[in-house]
Specification:
single chain, Ubiquitin-like (UB roll), five-stranded mixed β-sheet
């Protein structure tokens, strides 16, 4: 894996890619089950995080899941 960049929530972020989406999230301090992710414009089910590959230049939109009333 090489240090490259992906675009996460509109900002360039250094990342060790290629990696799985799950590896990317954990490396950036995010719990995979606490977020929803769009990868290159496509919604990704949490069950796909371990198989979905992230490469340099990919675009991610990551939102935290919150509970409340």
């Amino acid at each position: 894996m090489d240090a490259m960049f992906v675009i996460a929530n509109g900002e360039q972020v250094a990342a060790r890619v290629p990696a799985t989406l799950e590896e990317f999230l954990v490396a950036h301090g995010l719990l995979p089950r606490s977020v929803v992710v769009e990868h290159n414009g496509q919604a990704v089910a949490p069950s796909e995080f371990a198989a979905r590959r992230v490469a340099a230049g990919d675009r991610l939109e990551i939102a935290m899941i919150t509970a409340g009333g």
